[in-house]
Description:
Layout: H1 6-10, E1 16-20, E2 23-30, E3 35-43, E4 48-52, E5 55-56, E6 66-70, E7 73-77, E8 80-81, E9 83-84, E10 91-95, E11 100-103, E12 118-122, E13 127-131, E14 144-148, E15 153-156, E16 170-174, E17 177-181, E18 193-197, H2 204-215, H3 227-239
Parallel strand pairs: 5-11
Antiparallel strand pairs: 1-2, 2-3, 3-4, 6-7, 7-10, 8-9, 10-11, 12-13, 13-14, 14-15, 16-17, 17-18
Helix pairs in contact: 2-3
Amino acid sequence: MEHPQRPFLSDQYGVSICWHGHILLMYAGTTGSEYSNHLYAFDSRTAGVVKVSTSGSCPSRRYKHESFIVDDCMYILGGGSFAPTESCMYINQLNLRSLVWQQVKVQNDTSTPRTAFSCCVDPGTLKVWVFGGFDVDNTRLQAFQNYDLTSNEWEVVQTVCSPDARAFHSMIYTQGSLYLMLGANGKRKFNDVWQYRIRSTPPMLQMLAAYAYLRLPCPAHQPAIPDEMRSLIESVRLTHKPTLSA
């Protein structure tokens, strides 16, 4: 790692950011005239910033892409040099232990290439949800898709109603739902919030049962647990750290 020059960090936009423990990872972006594919790390404990040296097949220079972290890997997808430069949403993975890049090989990739879109990960199902953005013709998109990290497949999400086509919006995931807000379509700026329920919020008794199960000693033989309850337990395990009472 090496210390970057301060102006290089301060004059970029369209950078992706995501947390890994106490480290904020910032990837790529543009100054308005040049695009980058550098990775920087901000340490919240020391307030220091360093440029991270990586190896392997580094993603191309880009901006307005998205990044997320699952386990010890950071994933980069989408974006471009203003408009998308690829034929699909190529996904690049950085192992945060070895700092080696590799491209995720997706069979029959049906993803829609896009820039300035929104992206969220559901830790319970390991599905990546993406909405909107704009394509190579600068057309705002209404395309709603998800990528399953387990099956390594893209899927088009069909809904009864949908937000208008837009870009430069935001989306978050919490408690089994996606919340999408704001953005613009080139002619109009939106001032709205949409909710998409991935799954219903589990009853409190089920949540208590999931926490209780995680506090049990690891059994020699796994008990028979319904798939829905097993998914809830895994979601709680990934997103919460129960505090053991004395």
